[in-house]
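User: quick one, sequence for these tokens?
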């Protein structure tokens, strides 16, 4: 397939007349074509297509179809049908009224080409560039970030079902890729009887003994198949089949192979206490989505899938508002931005494995914002995102992280009766710490803990054991108090942040962060962002990039038409929620 960059074709005259007559007040698709047509061009996709071969459909047109598809939460078949029967879609795509459209299978092939060439975010970035040029979003000002869970597009399997289904998936792949080899390597009728239907399509044995026996059979079959594939006379390319490699990983993660006292090989399921199991971020959960991971949040939320982080602008204060301006001038600038009705737009979307903590996403998000030329002056986040290092690093780049830092979680701080770190006086120059009773530390040890610089301070045992308030200070068996400190600049920044976040002024300011919850709800209602449409992290990233693009298009449309940011047939409460996020 080749590409001849043309972009969206001009709208035929007959299509214009009929669309204008059918939609006298226009529609989202028509306004997107009229105002954002230049965003959907072919040139950014040139590297993903060849220069020889039959010309394919315009990638600019397919990207517009995908954005409209996500804006209306349609399947591929429904989107392809809309390109045939919807007049406003024909207008947006520049098609004749008699055009028969395209087959729905074109859309997944287009997405696969984007993923294969690392172009998941091309359309999102181009729309954001257009908004920057139009003055709808700019560097500086305020932005806020939050995350939500994403359920994978595969079934939940327990460990027994995973072991069996991984063997079945490998057999299906091998029977399609190398049927003759498989017929020689294994007893096909026996395996077909055991692995013909999906493992989760029939009821598993009720007794533990029978389940253990079935688990052992799955393990033995997986081991037998792995040995056949990795035997010297087997074609080497069989080992590169994805389902085969996943089966091998599931075998290693789920089973142990031992030799009994009688010299017999025994395959048994791993026990967490005796044999150990892989950590959550490495443990496979499905043979059909190797990137999906089990994760939990609190005591109520437990899911298999991913996590998505959305960042949006939340005031769009003009960049000329100087940081050192007085409060009155700043208020006037914010009032001017509000008067102009600038929309709140999603400026970044980041998708990670579900096991990646929020704090690991903070730096990449801020770096991506900086790469787009949209670093915020104030970045509002919840308590899962900050650390002392991140707060200080962002400040050095001109970004203030407005976020509640975690308080001192030591036993003394929790009890509110003991001596926490704030009760000790630190002399950084002398490298000493004085306790509330006047004793001076005897040890100052710079160390590396969890890949971070830290300082361990130690007090003499003789001083601590004779101290009258020792029970309020330490209960350590070693008998003396020890403190772990950040380096001076980080310790000072963390202490200042903890002090500031207790003030009413800071709490009133931080209330702005709550608006991002409405954005997540809107993304859920419009695009179904909490449920993955596709399998694998790269494709889920593409889904979320197009979801964010669709949300921005919907918000721009509300900005153009001066209509409330909501959908039809919504409750008054939901309509209010959307309006507050506008």
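Assistant:
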């Amino acid at each position: 397939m080749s590409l001849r960059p043309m972009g969206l074709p001009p709208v035929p005259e007959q299509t214009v007349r009929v669309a204008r007559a059918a939609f006298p007040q226009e529609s989202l698709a028509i306004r997107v074509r009229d105002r954002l047509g230049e965003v959907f061009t072919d040139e950014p996709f040139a590297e993903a297509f060849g220069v020889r071969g039959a010309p394919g459909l315009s990638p600019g047109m397919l990207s517009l179809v995908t954005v409209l598809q996500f804006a209306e939460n349609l399947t591929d078949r429904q989107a392809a049908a809309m390109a045939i029967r919807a007049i406003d879609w024909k207008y947006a795509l520049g098609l004749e009224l008699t055009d028969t459209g395209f087959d729905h299978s074109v859309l997944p092939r287009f997405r696969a080409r984007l993923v294969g060439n690392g172009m998941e975010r091309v359309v999102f970035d181009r729309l954001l560039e257009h908004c920057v040029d139009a003055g709808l979003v700019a560097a500086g000002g305020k932005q806020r970030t939050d995350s939500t869970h994403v359920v994978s597009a595969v079934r939940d399997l327990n460990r027994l079902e995973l072991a069996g289904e991984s063997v079945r998936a490998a057999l299906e792949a091998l029977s399609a890729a190398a049927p003759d080899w498989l017929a020689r390597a294994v007893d096909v009728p026996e395996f077909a009887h055991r692995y013909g239907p999906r493992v989760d399509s029939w009821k598993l044995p009720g007794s533990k003994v029978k389940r253990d026996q079935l688990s052992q059979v799955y393990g033995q079959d997986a081991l037998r198949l792995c040995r056949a594939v990795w035997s010297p006379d087997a074609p080497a390319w069989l080992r590169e089949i994805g389902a085969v490699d996943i089966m091998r990983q599931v075998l290693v993660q789920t089973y142990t192979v031992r030799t009994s006292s009688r010299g017999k090989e025994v395959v048994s399921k791993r026990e967490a206490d005796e044999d150990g199991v892989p950590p959550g971020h490495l443990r496979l959960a499905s043979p059909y989505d190797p990137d999906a991971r089990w994760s939990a949040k609190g005591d109520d939320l437990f899911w298999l899938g991913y996590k998505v982080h959305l960042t949006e602008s939340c005031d769009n204060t003009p960049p000329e508002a100087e940081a050192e301006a007085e409060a009155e001038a700043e208020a006037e600038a914010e009032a001017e931005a509000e008067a102009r009705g600038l929309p709140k737009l999603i400026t970044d979307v980041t998708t990670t494995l579900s096991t990646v903590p929020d704090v690991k996403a903070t730096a990449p998000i801020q770096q991506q914002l900086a790469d787009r030329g949209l670093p915020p002056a104030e970045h509002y986040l919840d308590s899962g995102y900050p650390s002392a290092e991140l707060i200080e690093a962002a400040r050095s780049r001109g970004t203030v992280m407005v976020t509640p830092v975690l308080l001192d979680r030591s036993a003394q701080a929790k009890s509110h009766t003991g001596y926490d770190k704030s009760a000790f006086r630190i002399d950084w120059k002398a490298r000493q710490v004085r306790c509330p009773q006047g004793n001076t530390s005897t040890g100052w040890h710079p160390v590396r803990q969890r890949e971070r610089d830290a300082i361990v301070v130690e007090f003499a045992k003789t001083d601590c054991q004779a101290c009258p308030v020792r029970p309020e200070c330490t209960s350590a068996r070693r008998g003396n108090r020890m403190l772990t400190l950040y380096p001076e600049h980080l310790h000072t920044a963390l202490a200042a942040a903890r002090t500031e976040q207790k003030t009413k002024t800071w709490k009133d300011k931080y209330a702005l962060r709550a608006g991002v919850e409405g954005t997540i709800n809107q993304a859920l209602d419009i695009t179904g962002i909490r449920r993955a449409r596709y399998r694998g992290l790269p494709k889920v990233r593409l889904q979320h990039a197009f979801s964010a693009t669709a949300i921005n298009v919907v918000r721009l449309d509300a900005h153009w038409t001066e209509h409330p940011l909501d959908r039809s047939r919504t409750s008054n409460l939901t309509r209010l929620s959307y309006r507050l996020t506008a």
